[in-house]
From TrEMBL:
It comes from Niallia taxi. GO terms for biological process: response to amino acid. It holds the Pfam family HTH_AsnC-type. It comes from the Bacteria. GO terms for cellular component: cytosol. This is Lrp/AsnC family transcriptional regulator. Residues 12-73 form the HTH asnC-type domain. Keywords: DNA-binding, Transcription, Transcription regulation. One of its GO terms (molecular function) is sequence-specific DNA binding. The keyword Transcription regulation applies.
Length: 158
């Protein structure tokens, strides 16, 4: 699998899918424990994971931080209309903002959808007033605050 062969979705087998599922549930699980779960050696697990990393199937390993536990209690979603000629520069500016957890270009020529996490309403208001509204090319902003989270997607669940 790692001998220069490119992994594609059609080349992922049942064991690869099981490994991805285990990693999704616990990114700190050991190669040995994965091997026991899927019935292959630790070395084979390591080779498969390395191949999935090399082929971009696994983008990165990370910690999922609970924002409330670190004092970030306001979660909001924004739909932003942008002048088409400013779309890329606006997206780049917003992508570099620490409060922004996700940013997407949606259907329509110049619509951005983003999620932000803030300590409180005042911090969100300051972000809107001093940063978002001040960006050249932003035409309008629709903001919706999260009331309750039922499910959050952290990567792809198989």
């Amino acid at each position: 699998m790692t001998n220069g062969h490119e992994l594609t979705p059609s080349k992922l087998d049942q064991i690869d899918h099981a490994i991805l599922s285990l990693l999704h549930d616990n990114g700190r699980i050991s190669y040995t424990d994965i091997g026991k779960e899927v019935g292959i050696s630790r070395v084979a697990v390591q080779m498969r994971i390395n191949a999935m990393v090399e082929n971009g199937i696994i983008e990165k390993f990370t910690a999922v931080i609970n924002p409330v536990k670190i004092g970030k209690t306001v979660s909001a979603f924004f739909n932003i209309d942008v002048e088409p000629k400013h779309l890329e520069e606006v997206a780049e500016l917003l992508a570099n903002e620490a409060a922004i957890s996700s940013l997407y270009h949606m259907t329509g020529p110049s619509k951005l959808h983003m999620h932000g996490i803030f300590a409180d309403n005042h911090e969100m208001e300051q972000f809107l007033t001093n940063k978002l509204y001040a960006i050249q090319g932003v035409v309008s902003v629709d903001c919706q605050m999260l009331i309750k989270r039922y499910k959050s997607r952290m990567g792809m669940k198989l």
